[in-house]
Write a structure and sequence with these properties.
The structure holds two protein chains of two kinds.
Chain A: E1 3-7, E2 10-13, E3 19-26, E4 32-38, E5 44-52, E6 55-58, E7 65-70, E8 73-78, E9 87-94, E10 101-102, E11 106-110
Parallel strand pairs in A: 2-11
Antiparallel strand pairs in A: 1-3, 3-8, 4-5, 4-9, 5-6, 7-8, 9-10, 9-11
Chain B: E1 3-7, E2 10-14, E3 19-26, E4 30-38, E5 44-49, E6 56-58, E7 61-66, E8 71-76, E9 85-94, E10 101-103, E11 109-114
Parallel strand pairs in B: 2-11
Antiparallel strand pairs in B: 1-3, 3-8, 4-5, 4-9, 6-7, 7-8, 9-10, 9-11
The chains are: A mainly beta, B mainly beta.
């Protein structure tokens, strides 16, 4: 069966510091991978998606970037965090159907 | 621009009540409509509806899709405190040919079930 991992689970970072969030998927090959952000009390905003290694599409211009160095690894990064980057970051995967399945998420607080 | 509107934004009921949650959408290249439940953590998948008028059921939860009027409803009967959560609807659609199938989420309905 497929599983998706994210780490860290929580993170507190100062403004201006770098960020690296990691997501890995097990039990499937060549999945579509997605990064979402959810601000408090809001819906999920799609940030990036990837259909394959090295292929990244950005949905919202912002302070973040994404990379897919391996088939089942998706990384979200920032060189300098802003206060507005605080939120709940979710990674999701999809293979053949329309359903996306979410990882446990990372709660990021930027102070 | 793709748009998903859920109503009501929040709902407080007592155990045993029946609730109806609404979702209307306007997206390009619609494929199906998904419902998720989120309890202070990652969303968990509930239903996917692709055809109009066919009700999907899972225990006390059921959902139906109207592709002509572009809306879906999620019904929960005999609510329990464990049903308290945010319910998210998300149409699956293609932004453009060759793009990944995407979900556009509504802001959700916060359901609180009191004992």
């Amino acid at each position: 069966s497929q599983t998706i991992h994210q780490w860290p689970a929580t993170l507190v970072q100062p403004v201006g510091s770098p960020l690296s969030l990691e997501c890995t998927v097990e039990g499937t090959s060549n999945p579509n991978l997605y990064w979402y952000r959810q601000a408090a009390g809001r819906g999920l905003q799609l940030l990036f998606y990837s259909v394959g290694i090295g292929q990244i599409s950005s949905e919202v211009p912002q302070n973040l970037s994404a990379s897919r160095p391996q088939d089942r690894q998706f990384i979200l990064s920032s060189k300098k965090l802003l206060l507005s980057d605080s939120g709940f970051y979710l990674c999701a995967w999809r293979f053949a159907g329309n359903e996306q399945f979410f990882g446990p998420g990372t709660r990021l607080t930027v102070l | 621009e793709d748009k998903v509107v859920q109503s009501p934004l929040s709902l407080v009921v007592h155990e045993g009540d029946t609730v109806t949650l609404n979702c209307s959408y306007e997206v390009t290249n619609f494929r199906s409509l998904l419902w998720y439940k989120q309890e202070k953590k990652a969303p968990t998948f509930l239903f996917m509806l692709t055809s109009s008028g066919i009700e999907k059921k899972s225990g006390r939860l059921s959902s139906i899709l109207d592709k002509k009027e572009l809306f879906s409803i999620l019904n929960i009967t005999a609510t329990q405190t464990g049903d308290s959560a945010v319910y998210l609807c998300a149409p699956a659609h293609d932004i453009s040919s060759g793009s990944a199938r995407q979900l556009t989420f509504g802001s959700g309905t916060q359901l609180t079930v009191l004992p």
